[in-house]
Amino acid sequence: MDFLITLRIALRALGKNKMRAGLTVLGVVIGIAAVTTMVSLGQSASGLVQGQFEQLGTNVIVVFPGSRRREGVREGTVPTLTAKDADAISKECPSVLAASPIVGFQGQVIYGNANASPREISGVGADHLTVRNWTVRTGGFFTDRDIAGAAKVCVIGHTLVAKLFQTANPVGENVRIKNIPFRVIGVLEKKGANMVGEDQDNVVLVPYTTVRKRLYGSEFDNVNVILVSARSIMVAQDAQSEITQLLSERHRIHPGEPPDFTVQDTAEIAKVLGTITGTLTMMLSAIAAISLLVGGVGIMNIMLVSVTERTREIGIRMAVGARSGDILRQFLVEAVMLSCIGGIIGFLLGVGASLGITALINSFTTGTKWPTVISIPAAIMAFAFAAIVGVFFGFYPARRASMLDPIEALRYE
To answer: Is residue 11 located within the same domain as residue 43?
Structure first.
């Protein structure tokens, strides 16, 4: 009951000087709004990065060809990986779920009088969709039999359907790549653009043997890269070790020699990017929090002025039985109330600012849209920090008020 009375008196005291109280709260409002906005935008950026790597595939490990040395001279990147390496990884590494060799090709796709230049024409293995965490929307995917026979079949992305076929059903139709007819056997599920704005649906997938033999005219077994999916995130490191050991044995890499391949885990890349965005968020939030200190100093100044103006009131309260603790609590509640009101308004403004900035970014970008993140921890932090600012900067004025001599206070004019 005493607290409710104290709260009512604090509201009445603040209501007597609405303009001054509003200007005092403004510093806290700006600080909390800035911190909330920075945290929300930082988490949006982190969510965007993590989402893009999840779209790449589940627990994906990328094996790149390395470089060879001849008589101590590095020859540069050479095709050191083969499709047999991918098969061996899939069969002999217990922690690996699937592997797919990749052979890239650039060219036009022609259907009737229409043509399009896809972002990539990729020769892949039968387990490519498993590795990439992708599905077929209509039709089907090519099989090991198609790969063994270098079949002239393909699966296309959603963008090419709109460019070449408009409203017609592409499954079963023939398209031409390098004047070679390919039968469309499936259409991929739509994925959208990646975080750098590249359209992931503007692709054509064909058996890697078909790209190598029919488009390149090569009988070699080399591939550009191997995509591997670990069975779970928990065994991703084990999968990397198993791949490294297996390829070292297959490529006859002796102990102490540099390998002619590179194994990279996309989870590690995502973690690094997440750390970078998190660090930037913390730095920007720390800079924005400086305005909270300015707001706290404003609260202290106003409370000191209030103590001076209400010196006679303090004396009267002490004369009728108020204790020093009651006076301390009264002024401390007023300071905390000012700060918390600023925290609530600042958080709401910060949420609005983050929504507006996210919408603005999405309106100017053609890639993957930034997710809208309203951080509950940021809300809790805003209110807690506002209360701490009120207590910290309001304690000295409240303490000074509680230490006034009642008789001197009554004499004050």
So the answer is: yes
Same domain, 39 and 105: no
Instruction: Look up the domain containing 221 and give its range.
Output: 79-259
pLDDT score at 176: 93
3-class SS of residue 61:
strand
Cα(195)–Cα(369) distance, rounded to whole angstroms? 8
353 vs 347: CA distance, rounded Å? 10
Instruction: Look at the alpha carbons of 258, 233, 186, 118 in this order and tell me if their dihedral is positive or negative.
Output: negative
**Cα first-last separation, the chain:** 32
For residue 254, being part of any structural domain is answered with yes
Please give the helix or strand (H or E) that residue 170 lies within, else none. none
The verdict on residue 308 lying in a domain is yes
Mean pLDDT per segment of 10 residues, for the chain of length 413 residues? 68 74 79 79 72 62 74 56 92 92 92 88 92 89 92 92 84 91 92 68 92 88 90 84 92 85 72 68 69 73 73 73 76 79 85 85 69 71 73 74 68 57
> CA-CA distances (angstroms) from residue 158 to 53, 147, 202, 284?
20, 23, 7, 39
pLDDT number for residue 353: 86
Rounded Cα gap, residues 22 and 19, in angstroms: 5
Q: Which amino acid is at 215?
A: L
Contact 119, 104 (CB under 8 A): no
The partner residues of 186 in beta bridges, in order of sequence, read: 139, 155
